[in-house]
Specification:
Oligomer: heterodimer
Number of strands of chain A: 4
Number of helices of chain B: 24
Number of helices of chain A: 19
Largest sheet of chain A: 2 strands, antiparallel
Helix content of chain A: 55-70%
Radius of gyration of chain B: 34 Å
Largest interface: A-B, 63 and 71 residues
Strand content of chain A: under 5%
Structural class of chain B: alpha+beta
Amino acid sequence: MVTDVLLFIVFFALLLFMAWPLGSYMAKVYHGERTMFDTIFLPIEKTLYRLAGIDATQEMNWRQYASGLLIFNILGLAAVVAIQGLQAMLPWNPEGLAAVPFHLAFNTAVSFITNTNWQAYSGETTMSYFTQMTALTVQNFLSAATGMAAAVALVRGLARKNTKHIGNFWSDMVRSIIWILLPLSIVVSIVFMQQGVIQNLSPYVTVDTLEGGWQTIAMGPAASQEAIKLLGTNGGGFFNANSAHPFENPTPFSNLVQVLSIFLIPAAMVFMYGKMVQDRRQGYAILAAMLLLFTVCLGGIYASERYGNPIAEHSGVNEPANMEGKDIRFGINGSALFAAVTTAASCGAVNTMHDSLTPLGGMVTMLQMMLGEVIIGGVGAGFYGMMMYVMLTVFIVGLMVGRTPEYLGKKIEANEMKMVVIAILIPAIAILVGSAFSVMVDAGLAGLNNAGPHGFSEILYAFASAAGNNGSAFAGLSANTVYYNLMIAATMLIGRFGVIIPVLAIAGSLAEKRVSPPGTGTFPTTGSLFVLLLAGIVVMVGALTFLPALSLGPVIEHLLMLQGLTF
Amino acid sequence: MSTNSNGFNKKILIQACGEALLKLNPKVQVRNPVMFTVWIGSCLTTGFVLRDLFQGSGGNTSFALQITVWLWFTVLFANFAEAIAEGRGKAQAQALRQTRRQTQAKKIVHDKPQVVEAASLRKSDIVLVEPGDIIPSDGEVIEGMATVDESAVTGESAPVIRESGGDKSSVTGGTRVLSDWIKVEVTANPGETFLDRMISLVEGAKRQKTPNEIALTILLVGLTIVFLAAVTTLYPYAIYSEINISITVLIALLVCLIPTTIGGLLSAIGIAGMDRLLKRNVLAMSGRAVEAAGDVDVLLLDKTGTITLGNRMAAEFIPAAGISMAEVADAAQMASLADETPEGRSIVVLAKQKYNLRERDLTNLEAEFIPFSAHTRMSGVNLKDKVIRKGSVDAIQKYVREKGSELPENVKSACEGIAKSGGTPLVVTEGSKVLGAIHLKDVIKGGIKERFKELRQMGIKTVMITGDNPLTAAAIAAEAGVDDFMAEATPEGKLALIREYQEKGMLVAMTGDGTNDAPALAQSDVGVAMNSGTQAAKEAGNMVDLDSNPTKLIEIVEIGKQLLMTRGALTTFSIANDVAKYFAIIPALFAAYPAFGIFNIMRLSTPESAILSAVIFNALIIIGLVPLALRGVLYQPLGADMILRRNLILYGLGGLVAPFLGIKLIDVLLAAFHLV
């Protein structure tokens, strides 16, 4: 218990210690200020622009920015589908894996461009090394950079005044990758390799087991994909077992590095925001609200797993703590922390079977996704998602001080409210409607592994994960069917671009506004009261929307479990 | 214009009940998306009840019927709230209409007055108005001077003077000339007069949603949609979970969850805000202006009339060396006896109060009074044996120099001292012998300093505008406690100042009455024109103060803030209510799983009574909050932080707790009367 809490404290301390300077560095990168790496990166950047014929100094309005982003992602989608379809003809396919069927390829492509990394396939039996490296790993970088670009555009909208311009999409993409994602990934993948994560292009190895049988052990360039999988909050495992696989996440130390990598950039973005709007306290307040919510969620998962399942205790099978689906080398603490982090951050990498979490532990992971992945959240996505709640809070509560609600001196008016409502509404409705549809049709019910409330949770989790662009799963649902591949793909697209486009629209309309100076009459958006209000509004909106659904899933499952009934 | 102070007279209440029924028309309902949702829900449940009645379904028809009735009440209560808010304005409009009816006008045609219908007058027609006549339309006095009773418009019975030229030349249609006559050039076509606009404003006929109201409506629609999704998807979830839920119950749940409290009261709040302004005799040309008033960052206040009493008052006599105080006072009073200006009268009064100098018999003194002339810039009195003059320092200096004398040093320095302190020095002289100085002082209005302090706490900056020199202005500014001042102000200077603040992102409010104020009024975000002012000023501003009281700007700001606060408070209350409603309804909904009983923390008697109690509470709270919506939440001049804490506790926490108590109470009553 004490060591468990100690791990959590070390995690928080290391996170803040690393995210703070990274935030300052990122602010410099996006402002185009000098950084220590310019001598190496500037020539690369210039060459790229020259090759692509991009004028990176040209400022864009929000429509141009959004068009660039959409076109870029559509091209990415096409490329990933194509590579999967052609992988049998392409190199680096020692196992001779066949072309991926279209519905799965489409689902996977959507999944990787939306930073979801929902995997309806198992990597080692479906994707060639070429596909893993050129399609999936590349999209891990690009989708992360897309989220960061959208977030930076929103920050600019808040920081600037009386302009239509919110930056240059291409420049934001290139700088996100070259200055931030690539160098960090290289460092982290080296750490992983040192810990024992594999990195090779060898064919699979067949070994004789102690029992006298034989086993095929999958190989591949895992470390290079592993780093960006976490840093970019992508979460798509190289192997099916994801971060529970010893070749992806071999040791408790690598586990700690993994959870830190997931939160690092999203947390740094909030620090970066404070610096870019020249009021660091604004960033602190938002991060404080995120960490407050996260602490509660982590506590919830940990307590629930630690308390475990009374049925297991009475049967004398094992201790009350719920170790089902968890790896001994990570323990309750390492598993609960990973489950909390990966669902908070829309990462979706897992080192634990979420289907085997206790009902309430599983509910917390689900709730974190349903809240819109704003508790730290995905790279960029978490920040801009939370900003939607910030504006909602400012609007609802700010009215009570007797002024038109303002944030950073910018009035929150009908146009912003429309976009905020859309951005918050769209993922929520996608989850509710997607799940409702799936429990009504045979194709939806066909994939269920469990009956009753647990089966319902599996469906609900799948859509929450897709809409929140998380990508983890209550793996009890067999999702590699035409129905689920298409439904989930649609949900992922809605959950991603249904938020990004309103966010960019808000960035554009905020940039045009004038800034009224803060005073004693304006609603303060720093300080503990605001932190509590923001966290409160996030919980209220999420709870009010999903309480009926959650009641029929994890809540009733928990209540029945206490009565000795399982599913 | 004045109304019954509580505004709830019986007639309005009865009318509102009728209006509430009329507003059930879907064409009216569709304007309010939240209540329209309830309306559709009510129609659906009515259909189910009727079906059950005719087909004799085995369901609990009495329960469904009660739900249906309360759903309709929810819609009716919201209609009633809006009708009540409108009712007050309608009563006022009715009164205004009567003054307008069938006025005749004496139109000047070829220099001869000719009686025509007032409604036939067009712009730039000229009419003659004589005692007893009602001024037929808005216009400018082009000839003559008259006392006018404007009580029909302002409610103020004291007559005012209207004359050609200057800033008191505008007249309003519907007012009555009491004495003398005027010729008026009509400035408004029929239907566009001030009275017409006023009628349509108070009636709310042209009421458009204000920007903030639109934004809030979007939020409410968003919440409605999300709850609609949550409730409709619950149906398939329940089927999957093998729980039987009737659609009537789902509709009840939906109505409880969507923000009906604020949705039902939103338009009443807006109308009531305009109405509160109207009660203070301020006519806002748009709701947008009222909202902007709440956002104001800077108040530009004219010194005269707002910060200081209209006129300077004598505060002190300062004798020259070798002259007694009584002598100065006596001479000063003597020189001012015939001076009817407020300054002159204040000198007489001061001498009387301080030195007990009585007014004396003027005929005995054979006094000949010399009025102030622009040429000599002095006034005074010639008596049998002496000549007394009073005037500005320069004028008297010139006067005594001509007589071969000089201002004594101590008088000179006293005058400088007075000027530095923000006062105006006058010098009194008897022939060439300078007796002393009079200190005329601007008198700061009582309580205004505290008012400015309050404004500062609210985060509003006050700027004094004055034509005085910077020295005087600084002294008065310091005494009144304004944040800043603009001395030697010109209309151009004012305009530039407003632009400067707006550049910094601030919203500026000001008052004005003269034609030369018009550009600044138009530029400012909230421009309050004095009703006594010119037509140009009234058209440039977005509010008109019928009392012509510049201090009212502060009240206008407060009303604007109160309007926004009321919306925020009720929105918060409405959303916070949902927590308790979930606790009432979810266990009732899933009664098939008795395990859910642990969430029935209110221990409501049966599932039916739990749902019905929530629906009844949801309807009654609308009626319960009507007075708050009309009155506005309590406003206190505090910083945003304090206001926020206070309102959060009251409406946030209150909104969480109140429904738990209310629903439980209703449940107890329902059980006691065996209604479910």
